[in-house]
Automatic annotation (TrEMBL):
Residues in Carbohydrate kinase FGGY C-terminal domain copies: 259-447
Family: Belongs to the FGGY kinase family.
GO MF annotation terms: kinase activity; phosphotransferase activity, alcohol group as acceptor
Protein name: Carbohydrate kinase
One GO process term, biological-process aspect: carbohydrate metabolic process
Domain Carbohydrate kinase FGGY N-terminal: 4-249
Lineage start: Bacteria, Pseudomonadati, Pseudomonadota, Alphaproteobacteria, Acetobacterales
UniProt-listed Pfam families: FGGY_C, FGGY_N
Keyword Translocase: no
Native source species: Acidisoma cellulosilyticum
Length: 503
């Protein structure tokens, strides 16, 4: 009987399961949306029961395609940090808190007021510009506002760790999760000094000691087997956070490999063999399996810009099934450089976090004249995101070659070629869709001995679907220079004091 690996990916608002064969080819997949709850402004929570039910549902649907007993091992991936508070049995004690939650921001602001160098001190150890939804600040908030909940807790873990606990009855986490808590990037794990910085010494026991991503966490219990349809006793690997899992799934687990994950947000990173702490106070340094790190810069707004352009500039076919193809066809009518029109893709309410930190920055068009028409504006939007990707890679200061492009934006051939031309690098799109689930599955396969190492599994199980070589004629150099000028001006612009003006 053919045997397979099952990868499960717990996203912020979607749960995915996918089955892969020994060559890493996707055999079956299923997804289910979940609801992000916001009981108070800036909060982002999950109903753990809904997330577990969604997980059981997608597992059941993929098992309808392959025999249950054919699943050799299971791996997990998911949105990182936040806080899922569980007791010794893995039962949650409050709603799960996602990375996008903002409840800890006032606490961070107060800490910065007392110690203006706080964020730099955190970066010096973690290599990451800490976000408000990271585990340590969220845990510090809970310690102040919900200590009675923490007193009953056995652990504070991530979303995928909660699902693993439901499957195996065991509580654990991985080195990727721990290092961005924030943690110690050099030690690839927890940071006692940062735990103390947040005054969490009395709660440090709630943070599990991280384990290797490709190790076995436990085995599917009888109760989990009844709930999911899996076979009891199936091994479950530790797995990894979604970024690391996607890098593995995309075949990017090698020194110097560059990856761009072009989704709603857009993460751009280069794998390195030693932790890189430059430029200071910017970007995120992820720990990767295989003794590597990923120095990354994140565009907060990626494909959301294309969604916005479709709604705002193409109302005549916004509901069409081929709407995105039609929009790209219109954009093609404008030449490279969009006749001088430039779009700055700062659509997020939190501004930008790379390649500069500018919370008040907002997007817009620049360089417009009366001659510009819809094709120019649409092309400028595509180009603006491509320029932002290049800006992020430049900010890392690292040399890189071919870029592996994954995510929803990788489906557009027009955009793929544009990104190759803007970067002046070959762009490759791996075969498949669910790269986080695939990376988790490959970690599980390594854990049970299918592959000699996770870097070898990542390389061997990646097939390239599309390749785009750059035109090499510098067609976007002037456009990129214009972009950096306008983007820099917007990043430095200070908004007016609205309260004072309206009073």
């Amino acid at each position: 009987m053919t045997t397979y690996l099952l990868g499960i990916d717990i996203g912020t608002s979607i749960v995915k399961a996918a089955v892969f064969d020994r060559d890493g080819q996707e055999v079956a997949s299923a997804t289910r949306q979940t609801i992000v709850l916001s009981p108070q402004p800036a909060w982002a929570e999950a109903d753990p029961a809904e997330v577990w039910a969604a997980t059981c549902d997608v597992i059941g649907r993929v098992l309808a395609r392959v025999p249950t007993e054919s699943i050799a091992a299971i791996g997990l991936s998911g949105a990182m940090v936040g806080a899922w508070v569980v007791d010794e049995q893995g039962h949650v004690l409050r709603p799960g808190i996602f990375w996008s939650d903002g409840r800890a921001q006032p606490l961070i602001d107060a800490m910065i007021a007392q110690d203006p160098a706080l964020m730099s001190r955190i970066f010096a150890e973690s290599g990451s510009a800490m976000q408000q939804g990271c585990t340590l600040p969220v845990l510090a908030h809970l310690a102040r506002h919900e200590p009675e909940i923490l007193a009953r807790a056995a652990a504070v873990i991530g979303a995928k760790d909660f699902i693993r606990a439901q499957l195996t009855g065991r509580i654990a986490t991985d080195i990727v999760e721990a290092a961005v808590a924030p943690g110690n990037a050099r030690a690839r794990g927890r940071s006692p000094s940062l735990i103390a910085l947040f005054g969490l010494q009395d709660w440090a026991h709630l943070l599990p000691e991280p384990q290797a991503c490709e190790s076995i966490a436990g085995f599917v219990t009888e109760a989990a087997a009844r709930a999911t349809g899996l076979s009891a006793g199936t091994p479950v690997a530790i797995g990894a956070g979604d970024v690391a899992a996607s890098v593995i799934g995309a075949g990017g687990l090698a020194e110097g490999a560059a990856v761009s994950i072009l989704g709603t947000t857009c993460l751009n990173g280069v794998a390195v063999s030693a932790p890189v702490f430059t430029p200071p106070d910017l970007g995120i340094l992820f720990t990767l399996p295989g003794g590597l790190w990923l120095r990354s810069m994140v565009n907060v707004a990626g494909t959301v810009n294309i969604d916005w352009a479709l709604a705002a500039l193409c109302p005549d076919f916004v509901e069409a099934k081929d709407a995105y193809d039609r929009m790209a066809d219109i954009a093609r009518q404008s030449p490279p450089g969009a006749q001088g029109a430039v779009y700055i893709p700062y659509l997020s309410e939190v501004g930008i976090i790379a390649p500069v930190l500018a919370p008040s920055a907002r997007g817009g068009f620049a360089g417009l004249t009366a001659r510009h028409r819809r094709p120019d504006l649409l092309r400028a939007v595509y180009e603006g995101v491509a320029y932002a990707i290049r800006d992020c890679f430049v900010a890392t200061g690292l040399d890189f070659g071919t870029v592996r492009l994954v995510g929803g934006g990788a489906r557009s051939a027009f955009w793929r070629q544009m990104i190759a031309d803007v970067l002046n690098r070959r762009v490759e799109v791996p075969m498949g869709q669910e790269f986080g689930a695939k990376g988790a599955a490959l970690l599980a396969g390594t854990a049970i001995g299918w592959y000699p190492s996770i870097p070898e599994a990542s390389a061997a199980c990646c097939r390239i679907l599309h390749r785009h070589d750059p035109a090499g004629d510098g067609r976007y150099e002037l456009g990129f220079a214009r972009y950096r000028t306008y983007a820099g001006a917007l990043a430095e612009a200070k908004p007016p004091n609205e309260q004072r003006l309206l009073s």
